[in-house]
Amino acid sequence: xxxxVAAYCIIIExxxxxxxxxxxxxxDGWTLxxxxxxxxxxxxxxxxxxxxxETGYRAELDELLxxxxxxxxxxxxxxxxxxxxxxxxIIYRAHVxxxxxxxEIDGSTxxxxxxxxxxxxxxxRVGLVEVGxxxxxxxx
Length: 140
Known about the structure:
- By secondary structure, this protein is an alpha+beta fold.
- The protein has a single domain, classed as Nucleoside Triphosphate Pyrophosphohydrolase, CATH 3.90.79.
- The protein contains 2 helices and 8 strands.
- The protein has helices at 43-55, 127-135, and strands spanning 2-10, 12-13, 16-22, 29-31, 34-36, 57-72, 85-99, 109-116.
- The strands form 2 sheets. A 4-stranded mixed β-sheet has the order 5-1-7-6. Strands 2, 3, 4 and 8 form a 4-stranded antiparallel β-sheet that branches.
- The longest helix is centred in the middle third of the chain and has 13 residues, at 43-55.
- The N and C termini lie far apart (32 Å).
- The relative contact order is 0.30.
């Protein structure tokens, strides 16, 4: 089994949540900004870096909300591999401190957007959005 450790941020301001559109290898769904840790990278640094890469915003972490473990069966993996994946997803509450909303170019996401909380339930999204919202105490 492969292991992937990633860090994500849930950023909610003025009744809106900041999401990224995941487009890697034909994927199509909204997700929390974040991604995999680089070798030797602290998860907190990875979360802040990924928010900037995917959204153009500088973020500051407020608190660790939790760690989620998600198993992706072999047949659901996007990559051409012959083993399941365990994804450890570290989720932080954060807030924007600067920057400008910008879409990522040549990355795993292709759009960043503020979305009204009451519109999230109707979005095509990955399960991580619900996990993060639940950890943050926000109902879908």
